[in-house]
Amino acid sequence: MLNIKHTICPSCSVGCGINIVSNGGKVLGTYPYKRHPINEGKNCLNGRGSVEQFEKRIISPSLVKNDELVESDNETVINLIKDKLSSINSDELCIICSGKNTIEEFEVIKKFAESFGTDKIGFYGYNFPNFDGELASYDDISNAKTILAIGDVLRENPLIGRRVIISKENGGTLISVDTVEKSNTALNSSEHIKVDSIGEFINDMGEIKDKLDGETVILINKIEDKDYFNPLKELAAKTGAKFLPIYKEANIKGAMRYLTSLDAEEIKKFIADSKALITVNTNLLDFLSKEDIKGKSFIINISNFEDDFTRLSDLVLPGKPWTEKSGSFINSEGLKQEFISSVISDDENLSEIEIFDKLT
Ligand code: SF4
User: Fold this and answer.
1) Which stretch of DSSP H or E encloses residue 83?
2) What is the pLDDT of residues 50-97, one digit of tens each?
3) What is the pLDDT of residues 140-170, one digit of tens each?
4) Beta carbons within 8 Å of 13's beta carbon, 6+ residues apart
5) Is 34 a residue whose pLDDT tops 90?
6) Which of 42, 159, 311, 323 fits a 20 to 30 Å CA distance from 148?
7) What's the rounded Cα separation, in Å, for the pair 207 and 212?
8) CA dist., res. 126 & res. 151, Å (int)
9) Radius of gyration of the chain (CA)
10) How far is the CA of 43 from the centre of ligand 1 (A)?
11) CA-CA-CA-CA torsion sign (233, 144, 7, 49)
């Protein structure tokens, strides 16, 4: 029988509602959540495609031998992890999470790290550092007189892009900044500034500064270095502009409340200094090279889907995909959104929370 359940889109940090269509525990597809106040009945292609990765789903706990996953079981893999952890010092364990983890998972994983005694824990934050402070709301974007968009917000976060278009329809001006000549945001802007790096633009904004005021919203979804972030935030504070970073993963804002945002170099150093590495729903090859990882540490990979990093690991536990768990994400504008599992599966895989409970 067809089952349709509301949940939150995992494909970026906007926090759109999405419906999961399933049959007998198998995800068949998605369709937009009509009454959700953020996306008002629309989902972008990234959101609609968020279930395509299910084709590469890892079906059981596994050992990795000669770059191939060899099927095992929970007890064997958990015992092997316990053996490994009992053979190292507390500061030789490093844990890398991601913005795909729920708030509830961060709480349990952080507790595990504290009880083990390691402070080498964090998540890859795409060069956005932890920060506090007031944020622009999504309504502020629709009502802005000027929008400065850094990165291709219209292509990568289309439901924020929709708010940008509403601002334009109300007479607002869109200024685009990117390292590429052509982008969806550039095409819709009244001024596109092509730069060699976002950092170069942030350090030298020229006349753009004079166009920013209390009716401006600065959107940013791309930054190459954590050091560029504070100057941008200070500029927003000085000009009175509102400010909103948008992230590639649904719960980066939530991750910032619990863990340290790490960049690629910091993660590389953590790995080099560790004898065991636990990764949770992240593919380190998205930002490190094989040489940075292979042979450096014993890798325990908690991951729902097979990728090139899974085959570099030593042990794999599948955890549960977001469709099969309940929890909460915090979206870009700081709204905590709870969701419940939309599919019941009959596999015996442990959830991320159950895995860390067994290891604590
Ligand atoms: S804008 Fe982001 S959250 Fe909304 S549907 Fe697209 S990928 Fe999902």
Assistant:
1) helix 74-86
2) 988 888 889 899 999 998 999 999 999 999 999 999 999 999 999 999
3) 999 999 999 999 999 999 999 999 999 999 9
4) 99, 157, 246, 247, 248, 249, 250, 251, 252, 253, 329, 331, 332
5) no
6) 42
7) 10
8) 13
9) 21
10) 6
11) negative
Task: Using the CB atoms, write b or e for 75-92: b if 16+ within 10 Å.
Answer: eebbebbeebbeebeeeb
pLDDT reported for residue 32:
86
Structural domains in the chain, CATH included, are 62-126+252-322+346-359 (3.40.50.740), 138-245 (3.40.228.10)
Average pLDDT (168-191) is 97
pLDDT band at 25; cut points 50, 70, 90: confident
Residue type, 147: I
Question: What pLDDT does 283 receive?
Answer: 97
Centroid of ligand 1 to alpha carbon of 210 (angstroms): 32
Q: Is the CB of 39 under 6 A from ligand 1?
A: yes
Ramachandran angles phi, psi of 207, nearest 5°: -75, -15
The CA distance from 211 to 18, in Å, is 37
Q: Is the pLDDT of residue 33 over 90?
A: no
Q: Name the band, by pLDDT with cuts 50, 70 and 90, for residue 132.
A: confident
Select from 133, 139, 125 the least CA-distant residue to 221.
125
Q: Helix, strand, or coil here: 3?
A: strand
Instruction: Give the span between the Cα atoms of 112 and 118, in whole angstroms.
Output: 9
Question: Could you tell me the two tokens for 358?
Answer: 């067994």
3-state SS class at 339: strand
51 lines ligand 1 (CB under 6 A): no
Facing residues of 279 across strands? 96, 301
